[in-house]
Design a protein that fits this description.
Helix content: 25-40%
Strand content: 15-25%
CATH superfamily of the largest domain: Type I PLP-dependent aspartate aminotransferase-like (Major domain)
Largest sheet: 7 strands, mixed
Bound molecules: pyridoxal-5'-phosphate
Low-confidence stretches: none
Order of helices and strands: HEEEHHHEHEHHEEEEHEEEHHHEEHEEEH
CATH class of the largest domain: Alpha Beta
Structural class: alpha/beta
CATH architecture of the largest domain: 3-Layer(aba) Sandwich
Strand order of the largest sheet: 4-12-11-10-7-5-6
C-alpha cells in the first residue's frame, strides 16, 4: 500500500519535497496512526500547525457543522470580525489582515511596511532566517540554496547577523526590519533580549518599522500567547499562520495604528483570506490556547521537555546543546551524526521529529502534550540517539 502511493506520488506530484516513507491515516490526541496501524508519538505537529493535536473537540465540533465556507471579502461575515477582535484585544495590534499562509502573511507585511514608509524601500533581514518561499518572503530568507535558483528576487533586501546588534545598520532608506523572535527553520535559535530591545530602539531612532515573524513561534508555542511578550518589546507588524487554523490554512498580519493609517482600499487583497469557516475554527483555537491554565501547562511541559533534552546533552557526546522555550526546542548535534539519521531512528522508535538549521533536531509537539507523553518520548529518544 505504501509502495503504491510512493510510486504514484513520484509520477504525479512535482518533486520538490523529500518525504519520509510513511503513509499517515489518522490521528488522535498527540498520536498519529500509519497505514499499518502503528501508533507514533507526534513531536512535530505538522511543523507547528497541529497545536491542539488531532481530533480536538474545539475544532471537530465546528467541522461537523461548518456553516458558510466562503463568501469573499466583498461582504461582511461575523466570524472574520470576531477573530480580528480577539486577536487585537489580546495583542499589541489594532487591526488585522487575513490571508492563507505564512509566506503570504510576510509578503503582505513587506507591502504594508513599504506603504507606511513612504519613499523608504529597503528591508533588513537576518542570517539563518526563514520567512517563506514566495518572491518577497524568499528575498528575506537567508538560505542561499532556497534563493539563488530564483534570483532576481525583490530588490532592496540586505542581511545582518542574527543576535548581533552591531551588524545592524539602518542608515539610508530602510523601511523595515523583519525578524523571528525565535528562529525556527534556522535551527531553533531564540533571540537575545538585548538584541530585540536594541532593534526596537534602532527602528524608533531611524523611523523604520519592526516586523516580528511569529509564524512558527507565536500563539502559545513559547508558553506566552506571543513570543514577543518574553522580550518586553512590541513590533509594528506581526505575522502569524501555522497553528492559527488548527490545521486549516490561514495567515494573519497584525498591525498597529501607524501602519493601519497608511493603508487604503485596493492596497492588498485575497480571495480566500479570512473565510468564515477557517476564521470560526481559528477563533476557537485562539480561545482554547489563550487561557491562563493552558499557557501555564505549556510552560510546565516545556520545562520538562527542556530537562529531557539537557539530559541527552549529558548522555551523548555528539549532542552539543539544547535550546528553546515553551514547546519549541532544538537539540544541536555535531557533524559526526547527521540529524536526518536521528529523525529516521526516531521513526523506528515511533516518534515523529523534525530537523532544522545545519544539524539540529527540532521538537514542536502539540501544545496539548502531557507529562506521560514526555516520559514515553524520553525513553524513545534515548534509544533513537543511541542507534543513530
Ligand atoms: N515564517 C516562518 C518563521 C516559518 O517558520 C515559515 C514556515 O516554516 C514561514 C514563514 C512560511 O510559512 P508557510 O509555509 O505557511 O508559507
Amino acid at each position: 500500500m505504501l509502495q503504491e502511493i510512493v510510486e504514484a506520488e513520484k509520477q504525479s506530484i512535482v518533486q520538490t519535497y523529500k518525504r519520509a516513507p510513511i503513509l499517515w491515516e489518522r490521528g488522535h490526541g498527540v498520536f498519529l496512526i500509519d497505514s499499518e496501524g502503528q501508533e507514533f508519538l507526534d513531536m512535530a505537529a505538522g511543523i507547528a500547525v497541529n497545536a491542539l493535536g488531532y481530533e480536538h473537540p474545539a475544532i471537530t465540533g465546528i467541522l461537523r457543522n461548518p456553516g458558510l465556507l466562503h463568501i469573499s471579502n466583498l461582504y461582511y461575515t461575523r466570524p472574520q470580525v470576531a477573530l480580528a477582535q480577539a486577536l487585537t484585544e489580546n495583542s499589541f495590534a489594532s487591526k488585522v489582515f487575513f490571508c492563507n499562509s505564512g509566506t503570504e502573511a510576510n509578503e503582505g507585511a513587506l507591502k504594508f511596511a513599504r506603504k507606511t514608509a513612504g519613499e523608504k524601500r529597503e528591508i533588513v533581514a537576518f542570517s539563518d532566517s526563514f520567512h517563506g518561499r514566495t518572491m518577497g518572503a524568499l528575498a528575506c530568507t537567508a538560505n542561499a540554496r532556497y534563493r539563488e535558483p530564483f534570483e532576481p528576487l525583490i530588490g532592496g533586501v540586505r542581511f545582518a547577523t542574527y543576535n548581533d546588534l552591531d551588524s545592524v545598520n539602518l542608515d539610508g532608506d530602510v523601511a523595515a526590519v523583519i525578524v523571528e523572535p525565535i528562529q525556527g527553520e534556522g535551527g531553533v535559535r531564540p533571540a537575545q533580549k538585548d538584541f530585540l530591545q536594541g532593534l526596537r530602539r534602532l527602528c524608533d531612532a531611524r523611523g523604520a518599522l519592526l516586523i516580528f515573524d511569529e509564524v512558527q513561534c507565536g500563539l502559545g508555542r513559547t508558553g506566552k500567547l506571543w513570543a514577543y511578550e518574553e522580550y518586553g518589546v512590541e513590533p509594528d507588524i506581526m505575522t502569524l499562520a501555522k497553528p492559527l487554523g488548527g490545521g486549516l490554512p490561514i495567515g494573519a498580519i497584525l498591525i498597529n495604528d501607524k501602519v493601519a493609517a497608511a493603508l487604503e482600499p485596493g492596497d492588498h487583497g485575497s480571495t480566500f483570506g479570512g473565510g468564515p469557516l477557517v476564521t470560526r475554527v481559528a477563533k476557537s483555537v485562539l480561545d482554547t490556547i489563550n487561557q491562563p491554565a493552558f499557557l501555564a501547562h505549556i510552560q510546565e511541559m516545556g520545562q520538562q521537555l527542556g530537562a529531557i533534552l539537557h539530559r541527552m546533552v549529558q548522555k551523548f557526546d555528539f549532542v552539543q546543546e539544547a535550546r528553546g522555550q515553551g514547546l519549541m526546542w532544538g537539540l544541536a548535534l555535531d557533524e559526526k551524526v547527521p540529524v536526518a539519521k536521528v529523525v529516521e531512528a526516531g521513526y523506528a522508535q515511533k516518534i515523529v521529529m523534525l530537523s532544522s538549521g545545519r544539524n539540529t533536531l527540532r521538537l514542536l509537539p502539540p501544545l496539548t502534550l502531557e507529562a506521560q507523553h514526555l516520559e514515553i518520548f524520553e525513553k524513545r529518544l534515548e534509544v533513537a540517539l543511541a542507534l543513530a
